[in-house]
Amino acid sequence: MPEMTQILKEGITVKDVLENLKVGEEQFRQGLSYRERGKIIRRMLPEVYEACVNKAENCLKGLTILPGSPSLHFIGNPVKWHENIYGDEEYSYQLNRMDHWRTMAEAYSFTGDRRFAQKILEEFYDWVENCPCQPLYDEEGRLAVESFGGYDCNQGIWRSLEVGIRMHQTWPYVIHHLIEDGGLDEKFLETYLRTVYQHGRILYLVAPVIWPNADHNHYLMENNGLLYLSCMFPELKDAGIWRDHALCQMERSMDAQVTEGGGQIEGCASYHNGCVYWFALPICLSKKYGFAMSEHYREQLKKMMLYSVHATRPWGGNCAWGDSNTYTGTLTMGAFSYYLAFKDATYIKNALCYYGMEDLKTQMVKQIWEVEELEDLERQLKGIGKTAILPALPKVSWQKELKQVFMRTDWSGNALYVMFACRTPVQNLHAHMDPAGFEFGAYGRVLLGDPAIYHYKNDEARRNLKSIHWHNCLTLNHEDPWEYIGSWEYGRQKQGDILHAEQDSRLIYAVGEHYNYEPAVHRRAVAIVDGKFLAVMDVLTDVPEDTSVQINFHMDSAQVTADSEKSFAASAALGANVAVYGDRRFKPALVPAKISTRNNVWHDTMIVRFEADHLEGGRHGFLSVACPAPVGETAPEVTDIEAEFLSDKTVQFRFVMAGCLYVLELCGNRLSVRSKEMK
C-alpha cells in the first residue's frame, strides 16, 4: 500500500484528517450526535430499530444472508472473504461490499454497545491484510483494466463495481457512526486512508475505461464512490481532481443514460429506481459538502420519477421487464430518494397508493441516517400516511427511445394494465429475449407475466428466464429470435421498434414491429378494448412455406386448463384469472415454467403455447383475446375468431364475445374498433 506522504497533501498529517473529520461530522449533524439521531429514529421507526439490532447480533456471530444461501449463513470468524460455497458470483461480490458492517455500525449508534464497533474494526483489519489489491499496472506498464472488470481476478473482490459500492454504501458509514466518541484512532485512519486511496485510483483510472460511454448503472455507483471519498477526505492529494472528475462523469451519465422521457436506458424498472437513488446521491452530498449539480441534471432526475410511476403495476410492484425485481428497487425507493434530494413528498404520497408504510420504511432505513432534519421528516411522515394521492398522469406513456409503452385503464389498484416493448437490438445484457412481448394484469394481480430475473448465474434457469419461449411472445419454428450465448452474451439482433401508441374513447393500444425472423416480418398490436379485455393481433408477412408459428402466453398460475377444440386456455388461481382464446388453427399446449419476484425466489407457473404447423408462404394474421375475470367471476366466452387482409396495409380481426360482434381493424400503424349486438 502507498505511504502516507504519497497520498496526503503536503503538510497534512493523519491527525489533521481525523480532527477535520470530527469537525465536519459535527457540522452535518447540526448539534445532534449519532447516538441522539438513533433515539429519534427508534422513536419514529421502532420496528427498524429492533430489526437492525437483531440483525447485528447475528452479524456478531458471523451469520448473514447472501445470494445463494437459503437462510442465515456462517461467513466465518474471521470472515472467509475468498470462500464461495454456493457457486454464485454475487455471493462473493456482496460479501465484499460489507453490508453487514453498516448494519453493525447502525446498531452501535442505536445502542452504544461497543461489541458492534469492535467487530467491524476486527474485520476491517482482517480484510485489509487478506484481500490486497492486485497491481494497477501490468509488467509492461499498461493499465491492467481486465484485473478489475469481473469475477476471475481475486473472486471479484476488487471489481470496480465493488470498489465503488464500498466507497459510497458501506465504508463511509463506519466513519459516520464510530467517530464521534473516539471509537476511531489514528492507527485505524491511516490504514483506512491507504486503502481508500487505492479505491480512488481504480475508480478514477479504470472505471472510465470499462464504461467509456458512461451508459451503465455500474458507472453511477463507481462515480458515487469516487465522489463520496473525495468529499470526505479533501486532504487526499488527488481529492480535487477526483471530485471534479466524478461530478463531470455523473453529469455525463445523466446525459448518456436518461432519455428525454425520463427512462434509464436499460429499461428495467428496478434498475431504474436504483438509478434514481444513485443520481439523487450527489444532490444529497452537495448539501453536505458544498457543491452543486446542474439544473439540467436536476430536471432530468425529476423526469425519472414519471417513469418510476408508470412502471409501477396498479397493485404494486415493478413491471418485470428484463432483469427487474418486482418487489425490490420499487417506486418507494425512488420516491424517498426524490424526497431527500428535493424535499418534495409528492411521489411518496403516490407510492402509498400501491405500497404500505412498511415498504416505505424498508426503503427509508437505507438512507435515514443521512437525513438532515429528522424531526421534519417525522412530521412529514405523520401527515403522509393519511394523504395517499393517486397519480395525476396520463394513462399511456410511450417511452420512444426505450421502445416501451405503459398502458392502464385508470390509476386504481384494479385497473387493467399492459407493458409492451419491442426493443431490438437490446441496450445491454440485462435485457431479455422478448421482441414485441408484454405483461398483462388486472383486478389486483399479474395474469400474463414476465419471468423476471431470479439470478445472474450462467445456468439453465437463467437461460430459461431470458428465453423468448418463457415470455408472452410469438416465435417461428420454435426458434430464438437471435443467438443466446450465455448469461451476459447474445448474438447479433435485428431492428425492432414501437411504431405507434395512443388512447381513444374505446381503445388503449400500441403497435410494434421487428425483423428478427427475416425474411418474415412480425408486427404486433396489443389493445385494451372498452376497458374490459386485451386483444393481441399478430401480423406476419413474407413467411416462408411450411413455417410453424407459436404464440406464448405465460400465465401466472400453476393451475391451467386447456381445450384444443375451442383453442382456449384459462388459469385457475385463487385470485383474479384470465382466459385466452385463439383462432381454431391453433392448438394449445401447456408448458411448466417459473416466474421470479425477487433474487433467488420464484414460483411455479404455466405457459400456454398456441401452435399452428405448415403455414402457407406469404402473409398471415392471428388474433388472441385475453379476458380477465375478477375473483369469483368467470371470463366471457369468445368464439368465431377470424382474420382477413382487406389490403396490403389493412387487416381485419373479428370475434364474438358475450353476444356481441367485435371488429378490430389494423390499418398500417393505426387501430380502430366497432361492435354490434348479435340478434
Explain the layout of strands and helices.
Layout: H1 4-7, H2 14-29, H3 34-44, H4 46-60, E1 63-64, E2 73-74, H5 89-95, H6 99-111, H7 114-130, H8 160-178, H9 186-205, H10 207-210, H11 217-232, H12 239-257, H13 269-289, H14 295-310, H15 331-342, H16 346-351, H17 357-364, H18 374-384, E3 396-399, E4 404-408, E5 417-421, E6 437-442, E7 445-448, H19 460-466, E8 474-476, E9 484-486, E10 489-490, E11 496-503, E12 507-514, E13 521-529, E14 533-543, E15 547-555, E16 560-563, E17 568-571, E18 577-581, E19 587-598, E20 601-615, E21 618-629, E22 638-645, E23 650-657, E24 660-667, E25 670-677
Antiparallel strand pairs: 1-2, 3-4, 4-5, 5-6, 6-7, 8-15, 9-10, 11-12, 12-13, 13-14, 14-21, 15-20, 16-17, 17-18, 18-21, 19-20, 22-23, 23-24, 24-25
Helix pairs in contact: 3-4, 3-6, 4-6, 6-7, 6-8, 8-9, 8-11, 9-11, 11-12, 11-13, 13-14, 13-15, 14-15
